[in-house]
TrEMBL record:
Species whose genome carries this gene: [Ruminococcus] torques
Domain KilA-N: 2-139
Domain of life of the native organism: Bacteria
UniProt cross-references to InterPro entries, sorted A to Z: KilA/APSES_HTH, KilA_N
Protein name (record): KilA-N domain protein
Length: 285
């Protein structure tokens, strides 16, 4: 995945998306400290600090089950010694750390998980850290808006394909028997089928027999429209109340059928009006 780049106080900072989360190039952040000091040396000096090693160790223990705690103690014992000049690669290789990694080539440098990168930025400059947080949040908002638009588009296409498939099932694969007039099934029906017939006009078994291939992985409710699923939820509530009142199957079925027909007509009519208004608005543009 291509790196993203943000600009913080005239410093370009690369951000890499990894499996765990976003990783920020702390080599780029180090450039904000001083032009006279090599960025790699700034990172190395930061890693020498015992407070840094403590923070990295705790972070790894929280997020990394394979972190080698014993090996990390070896680093912490040497912190502060003049001869102690660890590299990021040494830390990663010896402790099996995942919070830092080194990348070669284009966009190369030391990358740190965002939690660690912000801690590094604090050591560089608290002011720079604040601007970094602001720019990073702006980037994430842009990504979220982009993902939302993509999700909305996929949802729209999915819904239309779903309706096309539903229409095909209803047009060509409906059971032939009229279950609303021939009520022989009702005496032995389960509650789910009372709802199915009230709404769809046939039992689940009848649908499976008419659609053997589809029935291998689906049921009739998988092909219901959004409006039908809304009405179905309402029917379940009405049926539960009538069961508590002790109403017989025949009486409940008649009431449920009337409710289904009325509510479905209302919802479908409202959807048609919305589509007409939407088309009218588009034609005016």
């Amino acid at each position: 995945m291509k790196n993203k780049v943000i600009e913080v106080q005239n410093v370009h900072i690369s951000i890499s998306k990894q499996k765990l989360d976003d990783y920020i190039c702390i080599t780029d952040i180090a450039k904000a400290k001083s032009d006279s000091v090599r960025a790699a040396d700034v990172v190395r000096n930061w890693l020498r600090n015992r407070g840094t090693l403590e923070y990295l160790s705790v972070w790894e223990q929280i997020y990394n089950p394979n972190f080698k705690v014993f090996e990390s103690e070896h680093f912490k014992k040497q912190a502060g010694l003049l001869t102690f000049t660890p590299s990021v690669s040494e830390w990663v290789n010896e402790t099996n750390a995942i919070g830092l990694y080194v990348k070669r080539g284009k966009y190369g440098g030391t990358y740190a998980h965002k939690d660690i990168a912000l801690e590094f930025a604090s050591a560089i400059s608290p002011v720079f850290k604040l601007y970094l947080i602001k720019e990073f949040q702006r980037l994430k908002e842009e990504e979220n808006n982009s993902e939302q638009k993509e999700w909305d588009a996929k949802r729209f296409l999915s819904k239309n394909n779903y309706l096309i498939q539903t229409d095909a099932v209803k047009r060509y694969l409906l059971p032939q028997m009229n279950y609303r007039e021939n009520l022989q099934w009702l005496a032995y029906a389960e509650e789910a089928d009372i709802l199915n017939v009230a709404l769809f006009g046939f039992t689940a078994k009848a649908w499976r027999e008419a659609n053997p291939e589809l029935a291998k992985k689906n049921n009739v409710r998988d092909f219901a429209t959004i409006n039908e699923l809304t009405v179905l939820s309402n029917l379940e509530s009405h049926n539960a109340q009538m069961l508590r009142e002790g109403k017989e199957k025949g009486e409940r079925f008649k009431i449920l059928q009337e409710i289904a027909e009325y509510q479905l007509n209302v919802l479908n009519a409202a959807e048609e009006i919305k589509m007409i208004e939407s088309d009218g608005a588009l034609s005016e543009v």
